[in-house]
Amino acid sequence: MSIRKSWAALCLLGSLLLPSTASAQFNWPYKITGGKAVTEVPARPAGQESALNLSAPKMKVVRVAFVGLGMRGPSAVERWMHIPGIQVMALCDHERGRAEKCQDILRKASMPAADIYSGEDGYKELCRRKDIDLVYIAPDWKHHFLVAREAMTHGKHVAIEVPAAMNLSEIWQLIDLSEKTRLHCMMLENCCYDFFELNSLNMAQKGVFGEVLYVQGAYRHDLTPFWDAYWKKDAQDRLGWRLDYNRKFRGDIYATHGLGPVAQVLDIHRGDRMKTLVAMDTKSVNGKMHVEQMTGEKCDGFRNGDQTTTLISTENGKVIEIHHNVMTPQPYNRMYQLTGTRGFANKYPAEGYALSAGELKKSGVTPSADDLSGHFYLSKADAQALVRKYESPLVAKYEKEAKEVGGHGGMDFIMDSRLVYCLQNGLPLDIDVYDLAEWCCLAELGTISMDNGNIPVEVPDFTRGEWNRVKGFHHAYASPADEAQAAADAMAFTARLKEKGKKYWEKADRSSGKK
Q1: DSSP run (H or E) holding 171
Q2: Which end of the chain is more exposed for a tag (fewer CB within 10 A), N or C?
Q3: What pLDDT does residue 24 have?
Q4: The pLDDT of residue 430 is above 90
Q5: Longest Cα pair distance anywhere in the chain, in angstroms?
Q6: What distance in Å separates the CA atoms of residue 28 and residue 39, rounded to the nearest whole number?
Q7: Helical ranges in 234-300 per DSSP H
Q8: For the purposes of burial, counting CB atoms within 10 Å of the CB of 340, is it exposed (0-12), middle (13-18) or buried (19 or more)?
Q9: Which of 20-29, 238-247, 391-400, 418-427 has the lowest mean pLDDT?
Q10: Architecture of the domain defined by 62-161
Q11: Residue 39 has what pLDDT?
């Protein structure tokens, strides 16, 4: 009740900036001064504190609710069945049948059934419950913010699928919510947990590449086979939410897969910050074509270019290059490239590392030959030796189980496991609300750049002056003793819960006449 009262003003602001139905807008105030666009940065309200290194009290059990059980939600529920110390309290989707179907996942894992919520406002009723710690949000993009705002207003931590916020209005509201309520607001950026990215991050942090000066990331994924699979709200909706969003909005509206992992390498808001961006796009050709094919009508306007490129400079003189292209035929490519003063890492299309023999020796790895040059990728044997030397602790801990459980090859499971680990041990999360802001802001800021002749746009300091207070990005860990205790508590709880779940389903079968 106290949270609701303290947030009445913020919720009123939200209702003014964003309607209760899903309809994101790019309308944040900005001015152009000296050829550069500068957006308005709201002052931090009195009594509100930074969410940097935010932690919450330890949770022996993470009581979770899932909202959005269409494309990504069910696989998330299934992954969580492999994480000790959790209980699924509620399942919610606009279509009730989708939520009910996920009960089969709980049944298979001998977990008790969860309560079901559905309809346009089902998530609101769910968020008013007092026995939920975390809301895992995976509906269409336009509902990400609406569900997160409702959940945090009612005292729940949130983990939001990508992109977590679609415009600067949503971004600033989530920042204020997290700072005021002291609740975690994490974006579920799974690409930060892929094996190559984790190992390369560890190498970069250990100085293997020298000073990393230039990084690249992307989401280049031809979605032609998938456009018709996205949820449609009714018979009149012939495009589905994702193609319709691309039709209405310009800019890199899906930057997070490419930007997230490289931003961690550069310690963004942990010693460096994104300072200025410039965005450019091509005209829409295939986007218009898809609309015309799916509607049978001429498409006179399609805002999102078939290819969007954003260049970002940082306070410390680094450069970030990010691409977005979901329209043209090409192999899947997140780019992920690190260019350092002493070495190089690249994931797509050819995965490998480039270091001279001398630099490899300095890194503690004996090269297979003395004439190795940074002009060429390391041999398979040398690269494997480098990875063994600098394997990420997260890869070492989770890789085997992650590959068995799955989720984009295992990275989804590592992401979910880390989230639960940090909550159970009372630690700061790997991805905070400022990461969310920085990785989502390219959409509206890029649009401002392109709509004004590709002018530079100042990237807001979402930390409001505290970007250099934390020195370096790192994954938080509990002490060995605390970690062991939390793990033991989690295992014991799950064992008891499974016994309860087994009896629940046996009783349900008897009641229904099943044997």
Answers
A1: helix 168-181
A2: C
A3: 52
A4: yes
A5: 76
A6: 7
A7: 241-248, 256-265, 286-295
A8: buried
A9: 20-29
A10: 3-Layer(aba) Sandwich (3.40)
A11: 98
- 204 vs 338: CA distance, rounded Å: 9
- Contact of 335 with 221, CB cutoff 8 Å: no
Q: Where are the alpha helices (DSSP H) in 231-280?
A: 241-248, 256-265
Rounded Cα distance between 494 and 112, Å, is: 11
| Contact between 335 and 348 (Cβ < 8 Å) | yes
Q: Which amino acid type is present at position 491?
A: M
CATH top class, domain 191-458: alpha beta
Q: Which two tokens stand for residue 508?
A: 């349900």
* Per-residue pLDDT band at 513 (split at 50, 70, 90): confident
Residues of the chain within CATH 3.30.360.10 domain(s) are 191-458
CA distance 207 to 494: 41
Strands 134-137 and 157-160: parallel
Q: 120: Cβ–Cβ under 8 A, 6 or more apart, which residues?
A: 94
For residues 259 and 236, what is the distance between their CA atoms, to the nearest angstrom? 35
Tell me the CA distances in angstroms from 190 to 5, 165, 327, 419, 441, one per residue in order. 35, 16, 22, 11, 18
Q: Where in the chain is the domain with CATH 3.40.50.720?
A: 62-161
